[in-house]
Specification:
Low-confidence stretches: 24-34
Shape: globular
Largest sheet: 8 strands, mixed
Radius of gyration: 23 Å
Number of strands: 11
Bound molecules: 2-acetamido-2-deoxy-beta-D-glucopyranose
Length: 311
């Protein structure tokens, strides 16, 4: 009887020991063992835009994250705020950041679109919402390697309205050349631990209670030197799928402080109702459908000479 009991205790101890060994990497060091770190050597570019920044350095490069299916949004942006243009004597260029899709039809259409416009930066990773950090880092790598001559870079998205005129004016006024980073500042944000949220982040992925200061991923602007600095430090920063937080972690490590572009609010990640006078004095607004981008752009262009009451 006692012998059977002893044997059970022995078996239980062995099972417990094995379980401990198996679980210890996760419980003792969740971060090192289970999470992924951004790797700089993550593949060659599949597509590069047809531009030579050395010969023809742009003042401002707009990098627009978009998905393969968003051909219409890209077309609208090419014809509105993303048109190649000169503002106050400064050249502005827009390029789209893309991953790849398993959908053969979409893939074929994207290939034709790229052939026609040559304004896409693409690498071989699955184009999915939670690969946005990879997509952003691809954009920064492109600036670092192929377009460090640009003075400023904006990273933004397809559902945005960008007033490139006002942005250029403010950047010229600000007269900063290095270690400059601006946008809609988020200085006190916390990880969302509710599994039902789109922005749920597990303690495994991000064990700390607070996010570093970062700028809303809907649109942020930086001096081009920041691209290389962030890219180079990215491997030594914990990876997080929220690209704006990831860039914030890199900036914190680099001790680059976020700055306001202007004393008045110019970035609107929560949207803003359209009036020409209001939109003349904003830089970026979120939640704008392609049809509205067209409408607002036309209204803004045709009212350029109109005076607005100063608020
Ligand atoms: C991101 O891309 C990689 C490489 O294609 C892929 O293996 C991974 O599943 C993608 N991640 C998500 C969240 O889709
Ligand atoms: C911009 O700053 C530089 C020095 O950093 C200065 O020489 C130049 O005069 C400034 N330009 C304007 C327009 O303020």
């Amino acid at each position: 009887m006692a012998c059977v009991k002893m044997r059970w205790i022995y078996v239980s101890l062995v099972v417990l020991g094995v379980l401990c060994l198996y679980l210890s990497p996760y419980t003792l060091n969740p971060f090192e063992e289970d999470s992924f770190v951004f790797k700089k050597e993550s593949g060659n570019f599949l597509q590069l835009p047809d531009t030579d920044c050395r010969q023809d350095p742009p003042f401002l490069v707009l990098l627009v994250t978009s998905s393969p299916e968003q051909a219409y949004a890209r077309m609208v942006i090419r014809n509105t705020w993303g048109r190649e243009q000169t503002v106050m004597g400064k050249q502005i260029k827009t390029f789209f950041l893309l991953g790849t899709t398993p959908d053969k039809d979409v893939s074929k259409k994207v290939a034709q679109e790229i052939q026609q416009h040559r304004d896409v930066v693409q690498k071989d990773f699955l184009d999915a919402y939670f690969n946005l950090t990879l997509k952003t880092m691809m954009g920064l790598e492109w600036v670092h390697r192929l377009c460090p001559q640009a003075a400023f870079v904006m990273k933004t998205d397809t559902d945005m309205f960008i007033n490139v005129f006002y942005l250029t004016e403010l950047l010229l006024k600000r007269n900063r050349t290095s270690r400059f980073f601006t946008g809609y500042l988020k200085l006190n944000e916390y990880p969302i631990r509710s599994r039902y949220s789109k922005w749920f982040v597990s303690k495994q992925e991000y064990p700390w209670d607070k996010y570093p200061p970062f700028c809303s991923g809907t649109g942020y602007v930086f001096s081009s030197d920041v691209a290389g600095q962030v890219y180079n430090v990215a491997e030594s920063v914990p990876f997080i799928k929220l690209e704006d937080v990831f860039v914030g972690l890199c900036l914190e490590k680099l001790k680059i402080k976020l700055e306001e572009l202007h004393s008045e609010q110019t970035f609107f990640p929560g949207g803003l109702p359209f009036t020409t006078c209001r939109y003349k004095r904003i830089v970026a607004c979120h939640h704008i459908k392609p049809q509205d981008i067209l409408k607002y752009w036309q209204a803004l262009e045709s009212s350029w000479e109109e005076e607005c009451p100063h608020s």
